[in-house]
Specification:
alpha/beta; 10 helices; Rossmann fold; two-stranded antiparallel ribbon; single chain; 6-stranded parallel β-sheet; 2 domains
Length: about 210
C-alpha cells in the first residue's frame, strides 16, 4: 500500500484467541466472591474493555469492586496463558513485515500484555506496544493510536489498525486511521480480512 508505514494490531481476538482465557480469568474472580459465571454479554464486554471497566461492569457495589481489584492483584496470570491460542499465520506475517513496516499493538489489556508476548516469543516482533496503562483514555478513544502515530512520527493515512470489535472500529475512526476488520464482516471498515495471512496481500497492493 502506497505510503503505508505503520500497522497496529488489537490483541484479543486478533493476535490471540483469548475468549477462553478471559472467561476463565474473570470467572475465577467472580467465583472468589461467590458470584455466578459470566453470561455471553458479560464475556463480550470484558473482551473489549479494560480490566477496571470489566470489574466495574461485573461488580456494581463499590466496596466489592475494590475488593475484586485487590484480589486480582494477587492472581498469577500464568495459569490462564494455557487458555490462549495464538492466531495462525501471525508469526509468519510479522516476520514478513519486518523491515517493510513498523508494527505496534493498541490494546485495552493492562499489565498482562508483556507477559503474554514474552510467553509466546513475540516481544521482539513488535516495535511498540500501547496498553491501557500507557494512555489517559483507552480505546474507544483515539489516544492509543495517536500515541503510536506520534512514536513513529506518522500521519493517520500512513497507518492501518487491525481489530475485531466495535471498540476497535471506533478507535480507528476517532484517530482517522484506516481500519481493517478481522473476522467481523458486520463492522464498518475500510478493509475486511478473514485470516491474518490475507493482510499480506492487502499490504502488498498498490
Amino acid at each position: 500500500m502506497k505510503n503505508l508505514r505503520v500497522v497496529a494490531f488489537d490483541c484479543d481476538g486478533v493476535l490471540f484467541d483469548t475468549a477462553e482465557a478471559n472467561r476463565a480469568y474473570y470467572n475465577h474472580i467472580l467465583a472468589h466472591f461467590g458470584r455466578p459465571p459470566m453470561d455471553r454479554q458479560q464475556l463480550l464486554f470484558v473482551h473489549t474493555h479494560t480490566l477496571q471497566q470489566a470489574l466495574e461492569h461485573l461488580f456494581e457495589d463499590d466496596a466489592q469492586r475494590q475488593a475484586a481489584m485487590d484480589f486480582r492483584s494477587s492472581i498469577d496470570y500464568g495459569p490462564f496463558l494455557k487458555c490462549l491460542t495464538i492466531e495462525p499465520d501471525l508469526v509468519d506475517l510479522l516476520d514478513w513485515m519486518r523491515g517493510k513496516f513498523r508494527t505496534a499493538i493498541a490494546t485495552n489489556r493492562t499489565d498482562t500484555m508483556n507477559r503474554l508476548l514474552q510467553e509466546f516469543g513475540l516481544s521482539a516482533r513488535f516495535d511498540f506496544v500501547v496498553t491501557s496503562l500507557d494512555v489517559k483514555r483507552p480505546k474507544p478513544f483515539p489516544d492509543p493510536l495517536l500515541k503510536i502515530l506520534t512514536h513513529f512520527k506518522a500521519k493517520p493515512h500512513q497507518a492501518l489498525f487491525v481489530g475485531d470489535s466495535d471498540v476497535d472500529a471506533s478507535t480507528a475512526r476517532a484517530a482517522a486511521v484506516p481500519f481493517v476488520a478481522y473476522r467481523n464482516p458486520a463492522l464498518k471498515a475500510d478493509y475486511h480480512i478473514g485470516q491474518l495471512k490475507d493482510l499480506k496481500a492487502l499490504l502488498s497492493s498498490e
